[in-house]
Design the sequence.
DNA sequence: GATAAATATCATGGAGACCATCATTATTCG
DNA sequence: CGAATAATGATGGTCTCCATGATATTTATC
């Protein structure tokens, strides 16, 4: 039932405690040894021991001592987020966004390359190369300095990092993104669907930070969903979770049609609706009804704590959120909190970073991984 | 993101290894120390140490030595499944089923008390009492010997073990089942929705034994669902997952109506259909169409490895399964394996047992719990 | 039946990791 | 400058695991 708890060696215990110390330091700025001990539950002596080892291995650095208080000032230690770098890439219809982030997940450099939905495979891949190369160059690094890469793209992705099916982008089905990225940066490459990554990002740094179960709705020219269940991204058996749009009665297929029918330019039906224009108001109402139908199916299935709406249309929160909430209320047994994405345009790429960081952390925990740094 | 890995004490390491040894022994009959060492990854010396401790605490007993082979015959040890007992109860419309199981989850005694859907609260609870008392009596035990109880019932259940909403049973909303059961057996009581428990049971001892993501369909006079995600029962934020039936377009509300419309007695439309009777065949076809619609929503949302069909109608697998598979194929991107439940009538109560065992194991792992047995 | 081979158990010692405790050191406060 | 405060550093102890070798018990073979 539950995976093997394994147990094991003494050294495993040390590993566990080392990870606990790192997690305690991460994001907390700098801590004294006493702080570390309290947060990890270790004794002060052991905390010191672990920190010394991490210091030696390059995971931790000394920060300025405490000042002000009475008594001997304590040394402080911080996680060396700059010990390694991960790459995040969002490959969309209109833009390629590549970022280089440190081990805290803070973005150091980012390059955006505009593309068009009609672009072919080679052209698009070439744009990816440029974006990534731009990041590396700005940081004065090479591909070899990257510890892991995360990539987000539209369409279904298989476990090995190939695009299995993409309707939105031409010539995109069958691209082996993992292999392509590995040519630039030889570290492990994780490829994932963009809605799923946006969901991950919202749970990490967005409005769903404290939700364990969350449904992310991608509302834009495409409609999609990403699920976080029990704090983890839910992929499904063949990485095809959240594809509720395939069921016609749930409305996602026809949802956008209401909008494009209302105005030639799909662009600003929302603005028109906001201004009170009759046809636009109707179109938006119908769109929301259809969006809510599929969303209700997800909510009823999973009973999440929160629904987060992202994607291009999330800029029009004022005319979307309240009606959506009302529609959900109509169908759901318990309507979850409904929130607008806080990450906007960068949700996918942040999710890609998180994916890469997860991979790094897993390897650290295993004891393998690129620890034993260049010291 | 990931829950605290905590790390911790030396004694925690021993706990971990003790649990590993117990898991190795459980279900495996009897093992020699060398076997235990190999399975847990511990050294033989340590394995011996752990086993000695478990022996002393009453978790493990010596079994007959090996015979036949060359060399000194090894002692063999087995998990003492009889060291404790858990209770499982299924409270349904037509029957109350109570079982007493050992720590391996093997049922020792079971008592079935017929009830009617129309029965009031007190009468039903009284039937529960009789079923449970019957089990305990047959085993020559008292409520104090029970380490944990699991209870399954229709309707929504809150975290504290109260029924929050039940449409099928009269006067059932608001019953505090946990409190009621605790009066009989003072150990912890876990209460859960019956579809969810059936799902759990199928993943444990049913046809979904090796599936990590699974959707269970309860097909009977009521229609319901239970989800197992990543090997764990998915409850949702307010324990209301799987309630896809609330969405009218997904057909579960009207599904059974087709059947009851076809024959006065809802009972054997399936038999009639099997015999080729025109009206019945149509009714079943419509029923399956509606069932499949809601099921497709779940499958598309989660992309599970397997769909398991249980509930009263699962006896009519021959006229259900194939059409259901075809309908799913029509809507789903990737149609999962579709299987009929192997546990039938006892799925819910087995799930209840599993729930109780999970609780026991958790407490064992924590080191609290009723270990240090009566030795 | 005695001996060899095989295998399990038991005993000893060592290493790693954690903890408690106390002496030492560096500050601030009065 | 001394007292109070709080961190650091050092010592010794305990727990757990592991490797290794001595001892025990059985089967196979001569």
Sequence:
């Amino acid at each position: 039932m539950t995976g093997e708890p394994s147990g094991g060696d003494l050294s495993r215990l040390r590993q566990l405690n080392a990870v606990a110390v790192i997690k305690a330091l991460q994001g907390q700025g700098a801590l004294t040894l006493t702080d570390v001990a309290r947060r990890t539950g270790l004794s002060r002596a052991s905390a010191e021991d672990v920190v010394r080892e991490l210091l030696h291995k390059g995971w931790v650095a000394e920060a300025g001592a405490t000042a002000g208080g009475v008594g001997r000032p304590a040394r402080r230690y911080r996680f060396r987020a700059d010990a390694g770098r991960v790459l995040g890439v969002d490959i969309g219809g209109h833009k390629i966004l590549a970022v280089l982030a440190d081990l805290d997940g803070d973005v150091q450099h980012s390059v955006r390359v505009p593309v068009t939905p009609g672009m072919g495979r080679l052209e698009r891949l070439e744009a990816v190369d440029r974006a990534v190369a731009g990041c590396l160059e700005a940081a004065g690094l090479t591909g070899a300095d990257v510890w892991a890469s995360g990539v987000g793209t539209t369409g279904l992705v298989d476990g090995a990092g190939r695009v299995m099916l993409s309707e939105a982008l031409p010539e995109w089905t069958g691209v082996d993104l993992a292999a392509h990225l590995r040519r630039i940066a030889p570290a492990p490459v994780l490829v994932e669907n963009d809605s799923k990554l946006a969901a991950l990002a919202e749970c990490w740094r967005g409005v769903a930070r404290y939700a364990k179960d969350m449904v992310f709705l991608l509302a834009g020219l495409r409609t999609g969903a990403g699920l976080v269940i029990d704090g983890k991204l839910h992929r499904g058996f063949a990485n095809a979770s959240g594809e509720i749009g395939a069921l016609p009665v749930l409305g996602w297929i026809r949802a956008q049609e209401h909008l494009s029918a209302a105005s030639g330019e799909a662009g600003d039906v929302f603005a028109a609706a906001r201004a009170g224009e009759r046809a636009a108001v109707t179109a938006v109402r119908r769109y929301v009804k259809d969006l809510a139908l599929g969303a209700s199916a997800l909510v009823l299935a999973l009973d999440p704590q929160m629904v987060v709406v992202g994607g291009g249309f999330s800029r029009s929160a004022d005319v979307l959120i309240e009606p959506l909430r009302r529609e959900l209320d109509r169908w759901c047994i318990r309507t979850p909190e409904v929130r607008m994405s806080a990450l906007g345009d960068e949700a996918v790429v942040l999710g890609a970073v998180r994916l890469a960081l997860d991979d790094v952390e897993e390897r650290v925990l295993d004891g393998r991984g690129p620890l034993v740094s260049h010291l």
In short: The radius of gyration of chain B is 23 Å. Residues 255 and 287 of chain B are 5 Å apart (CA to CA).
